[in-house]
């Protein structure tokens, strides 16, 4: 089993976390507190882990851009 823990810090951590919540896998655990978003998950294979990380990072990037654009 391969485990990953990603921590993001920024002004919009909670909003970004809520935006990507529907995309989370059942085994993902996400915690948002103030300006910190932490996501933990596991996978059986390294390829699955890499694909999940790639999707997650892209979704987080899009969510962040959307939140920033909404402010303007």
What does this structure look like?
With 72 residues, this protein is an alpha+beta fold. It has a single domain, classed as TATA-Binding Protein (2-Layer Sandwich), CATH 3.30.310. The protein is 47% helix and 29% strand. It has 2 helices and 3 strands. It has helices at 13-20, 46-71; strands at residues 2-9, 29-33, 36-43. A 3-stranded antiparallel beta sheet has the order 1-3-2.
Could you list some keywords that capture this structure?
single chain, 72 residues, alpha+beta, TATA-Binding Protein, 3 strands, elongated
CATH topology: TATA-Binding Protein
Shape: elongated
User: In terms of per-residue confidence, which ranges show pLDDT below 50 for 5 or more consecutive residues?
Assistant: none
Helix content: 40-55%
Report mean pLDDT, rounded to a whole number: 90
Tell me the β content: 25-35%
Q: In the CATH classification, which architecture applies?
A: 2-Layer Sandwich
Secondary-structure element order, as H and E? EHEEH
The total number of structural domains is 1
Q: Sketch the major β-sheet.
A: 3 strands, antiparallel
Question: Concise description?
Answer:
The chain has 72 residues and is an alpha+beta fold. The protein is built from two helices and three strands; from the N terminus they run E-H-E-E-H.
How is the topology of this model organized?
Blueprint: E1 2-9, H1 13-20, E2 29-33, E3 36-43, H2 46-71
């Amino acid at each position: 089993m391969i485990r990953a823990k990603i921590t993001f810090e920024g002004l919009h951590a909670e909003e970004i976390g809520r935006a990507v919540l529907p995309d989370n896998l059942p085994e993902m655990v996400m915690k948002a507190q103030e300006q910190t978003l932490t996501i933990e998950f596991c996978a059986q294979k390294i390829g699955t882990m890499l694909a999940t990380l790639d999707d997650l990072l892209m979704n987080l990037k899009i969510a962040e851009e959307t939140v920033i654009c909404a402010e303007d």
